Amino acid sequence: EITSLLSLCGGQFSGEQEIRVNSPFWILSIPSEEMARGLMKRTVCAKSIFELWGHGRSAGELYASLKNYPMDKMLPYLQSDSTYKVHIHTFNKTLTQAQKIKKIDALEFLPFKGKVNLKNPEHIFWILEDYGMDPNNVPEEPFQLYFGRWIADGQRELIESYSVKKRHFIGNTSMDACLSFIMANHGRVKPNDLVYDPFVGTGGLLISSAHFGAYVCGTDIDYNTIHGLGKASRKNQKWRGPDENIRANLRQYGLEKYYLDALVSDFSRPIWRKGMLFDAVITDPPYGIREATRRTGSPKETVKSAERSTENHIFVSSSYHLSDIFFDLLKFAAEYLVMGGRLVYWLPIYRPEYTEEIIPRHPCLKLISNCEQMLSSHTSRRLITMEKVKEFKDQDQNSYLLDGQYMPYRGHNSFREKYFSGVTKRIAKEEKDNQK
């Protein structure tokens, strides 16, 4: 997320130190404070950003680092007519008030000339201490110490204010608000962009893009979901109400002006005119677990079932393999994204068989990031971000079939069976353990 947002702000990702996976702190090189503020106006992953004045593996190293920090960079924030306070944050350890005061007093060598104001200071300075990630083995002294000037906080409050629990219209698989904003940031969504979700469902992914000023639209094969009809997903509610639809969700957050439309459509069948249309395609395809993978059928295909909605809308559906969904998705993105536009989607994975080779590829799309979210001990889903780097030509239509890479992806088709075999084994193990 940070890498995508830095590139959106015009910067590049470069860490001054190797990123420690087991640490909640990063040191980043960012050209300007303005860019740092722009980054924090979007991120839901980062909590706060500081101008780093010094750091070290011990208090002595920290103080030596602070004494080497250029005085001309410090002085504007230490003037006699200014107010300040020093805040201490310890990760994985709680300090007493006396311990905190002792650590603050130890910084008296810094030339603070202003007055202390705990309620409304002009400048806030932080001491950050990292005591590792293991709550059962907290060291006496921190692994790393940092001191810096606070610049801005991230957008963590969006997770609560856009919580699915408070939303008018939800379904069985409505996307968590935090993940929805992370996906919009991976897609580098910006004001006046056009963002499309081909498996729109209840429109959770549209909301985060609209929040960042993009115009949003989507399609879904489910007539009832698009029209807000049928059975409700909420507990103790049988049928959906008159104000349960995608438009009402955007209206709830004051974002209705960014809503273009949602169409009933089968993603496996083309409905759009040729040409580059979308700045981002952000979606969560169905995995066949809580939502069926299906497409419209024809007399030539094996008809699985005939379905009838509450509006007497009838269609037949046939199976839509996961591998076909992903290839249709990549082919669509390659053809309909603008140059530099991004595709962001979730890929379900059976972990014992996972390798990098099973990530679907397309010659017009470059893989930007591949992040894992654990679902269970044996399954996960990976957030795949791809960027369009090459113009789509007709010969790219089925290019994935040419180089023998198609077969590994067929494994995605059995994800449902593997998922439920794992669930069955776990239930059997739990029952066996309970009998002991």
UniProtKB/TrEMBL annotation:
<feature type="domain" description="Ribosomal RNA large subunit methyltransferase K/L-like methyltransferase">
    <location>
        <begin position="166"/>
        <end position="296"/>
    </location>
</feature>
<dbReference type="InterPro" id="IPR002052">
    <property type="entry name" value="DNA_methylase_N6_adenine_CS"/>
</dbReference>
<keyword id="KW-0489">Methyltransferase</keyword>
<protein>
    <recommendedName>
        <fullName>tRNA (guanine(10)-N(2))-methyltransferase TRMT11</fullName>
        <ecNumber>2.1.1.214</ecNumber>
    </recommendedName>
</protein>
<keyword id="KW-0819">tRNA processing</keyword>
<dbReference type="GO" id="GO:0008033">
    <property type="term" value="P:tRNA processing"/>
</dbReference>
<dbReference type="Pfam" id="PF25904">
    <property type="entry name" value="Tmrp11_N"/>
</dbReference>
<dbReference type="GO" id="GO:0043527">
    <property type="term" value="C:tRNA methyltransferase complex"/>
</dbReference>
<feature type="domain" description="tRNA (guanine(10)-N(2))-methyltransferase TRMT11 N-terminal">
    <location>
        <begin position="21"/>
        <end position="156"/>
    </location>
</feature>
<comment type="similarity">
    <text>Belongs to the class I-like SAM-binding methyltransferase superfamily. TRM11 methyltransferase family.</text>
</comment>
<dbReference type="InterPro" id="IPR029063">
    <property type="entry name" value="SAM-dependent_MTases_sf"/>
</dbReference>
<dbReference type="GO" id="GO:0160102">
    <property type="term" value="F:tRNA (guanine(10)-N2)-methyltransferase activity"/>
</dbReference>
<dbReference type="GO" id="GO:0000049">
    <property type="term" value="F:tRNA binding"/>
</dbReference>
<dbReference type="InterPro" id="IPR059073">
    <property type="entry name" value="TRMT11_N"/>
</dbReference>
<dbReference type="Pfam" id="PF01170">
    <property type="entry name" value="UPF0020"/>
</dbReference>
<dbReference type="GO" id="GO:0032259">
    <property type="term" value="P:methylation"/>
</dbReference>
<dbReference type="InterPro" id="IPR016691">
    <property type="entry name" value="TRMT11"/>
</dbReference>
<dbReference type="InterPro" id="IPR000241">
    <property type="entry name" value="RlmKL-like_Mtase"/>
</dbReference>
<keyword id="KW-0963">Cytoplasm</keyword>
<keyword id="KW-0820">tRNA-binding</keyword>
<comment type="subunit">
    <text>Part of the heterodimeric TRMT11-TRM112 methyltransferase complex; this complex forms an active tRNA methyltransferase, where TRMT112 acts as an activator of the catalytic subunit TRMT11.</text>
</comment>
<comment type="function">
    <text>Catalytic subunit of the TRMT11-TRM112 methyltransferase complex, that specifically mediates the S-adenosyl-L-methionine-dependent N(2)-methylation of guanosine nucleotide at position 10 (m2G10) in tRNAs. This is one of the major tRNA (guanine-N(2))-methyltransferases.</text>
</comment>
<keyword id="KW-0808">Transferase</keyword>
<dbReference type="GO" id="GO:0005737">
    <property type="term" value="C:cytoplasm"/>
</dbReference>
<keyword id="KW-0949">S-adenosyl-L-methionine</keyword>
<keyword id="KW-0694">RNA-binding</keyword>
